[in-house]
Amino acid sequence: MALEVPIDPPVDIYAVFQRFNYKHWTALAEFVDNSVQSFRDNQAILAAAPFRQKFVTVRITLHRESRKVVIMDDAAGIPASQFPRAFRAAVPPSDATGLHEFGMGMKCAAFWFTKKWKVTTAHVGDGLRRNVLLDLTRIREKQSTRIPVEERSAGPLEHGTTIHLEDVGERMPKGQTMSKVREFLADIYRVPIRDGLLRLEVNGEECVTRRNDVLVAPSFSSNNKPQGDPVAWSKDISINLPGNRMVTGSAALFAKGNRSEAGFTLFRRGRVVDGFPGSRWKPDAIFGAGNSAESMRVFGELHFEGFGVSSQKDQIDWCGLEDDFIEKLKSQMNAEPLRILSQARNYRTGPLDELDPEEVIIKIGQAVDSTADALSDLGPELTHEAPSHVLPADQAITEPAAPHTVDVRAPNRQYQVRFDNADWTVEFQFPRKNDRDAWLDVRGGASDIEDSGGRNLLQIRLAMDHPFTVNFVKLDQHHLEPVLRLAASLALAERLAKLAGVDTPSVIRSRLNQVLTQALGHPEGQR
After folding, report:
1. Neighbours of 225 (CB within 10 A)
2. pLDDT tens column, 24-60
3. What CA–CA distance (Å, rounded) separates 340 from 249?
4. Quick check: helix, strand or coil at residue 213?
5. Strand spans (E) along 390-471
6. Phi and psi (nearest 5°) for 157?
7. With a threshold of 0.85, does the pTM exceed it?
8. E strands along 155-244, which residues?
9. 143 has pLDDT over 50
10. Contacts of 275 (CB under 8 A, 6+ apart)
């Protein structure tokens, strides 16, 4: 009797799959899941003679011009006995402990991409190649209830499966999505790739796993002072939960902060379920606000056993245990001897002289550029209206008559902006130390200074070696930018106050510098 594939349930159910909330990489991952599981199930046969195969290769090719997606593997292929189940929706395999547990993945993903796709497969040792075409339009026209499977002879060593997704329209990856497909798939399958079980290629380029550099440093206490010898800040995690559930893995700190990659990646059965690139799992109870030190440095892998997942394998089914788990995870992360969270909050990269000059330039530049963009939007919102209180003249602070001698680590940045109905040059400078030991210095804020082009000049200088900068300001865009915005606001307010008739607006800045230098620029007990 000729082999056939039953169309059951009705064909309209397959059309529903096109409305699934897939991303391109999660849809393609359904095919990779089947390939990896097929190899695992038949690893003993494939590893022996005559095959001697140590890993499975999956090649994904995206043909934009011909609107085709081809997924090819050298796994064990689909046996004839599995054809009736493999092409029917929601019929799980007899052993549902692997990656193809729901019996939905290949069908859902294929019909999400297109209405027409073909499978060619040769099961290891069968000596036959089988082809089946699933075309929703044709099935509807003929009101088919069964689809014939074409069989041809194959070589004795031939095995594997190739899936052709044809007439892919708007679902064809393009632009940045093309590069994201490779990046995300490399991340999703980092465990089998790392273990040497899987070789994955996208458009001929191999997907490789990335190595994260772990922080090696002494322990930093709450006063931001190092204690003891340098250690690698990574620790094992092992948490038991009700219902024979367990989570194992690791938590660590990045050597250099990385906001987009910080956070946890959640695994189940060796593949990523949650915590994809750019959207790692970051519970607020552990990572706090988006600009926290933890959200810049903490990362890790967590492997879940005994948990279910969503039908699209992109969320853990917590069964009401998420809050309990987060509490236990936080406790383990901050337990002695490696208090991961405390180290993330208290760690300082060191004096300015010890930092990579290029890194400093980049980080300062990013913060300055963003601050300058905000300045350029001020426009007509600033006014000359005088404040209700005028500072007494006996508190005047004399402005410097000549430019400071500035030893700059990062280059000065100048921006042309228009506010207060005038054209201005706003210049940020970053000296090692101002000549009056001031954290913030301003020129042009209370006196008329012009640049070479006749524009009003406002120079804003932040001392990088001032105690406040060293002890409390991290040199990255997300921590430095709020400080720059505050400094720019003080400088602009000082200028506007002068124009409004205030005789000594710089007295506020002078007292600010005095307080920061003598008291608030130092951690408690460090003055």
Report:
1. 15
2. 999 999 999 999 999 999 999 999 999 999 999 999 9
3. 14
4. coil
5. 413-419, 422-429, 440-443, 456-462
6. -100, 0
7. no
8. 160-166, 198-202, 205-206, 216-220, 226-232, 234-241
9. yes
10. 263, 264, 265, 266, 281
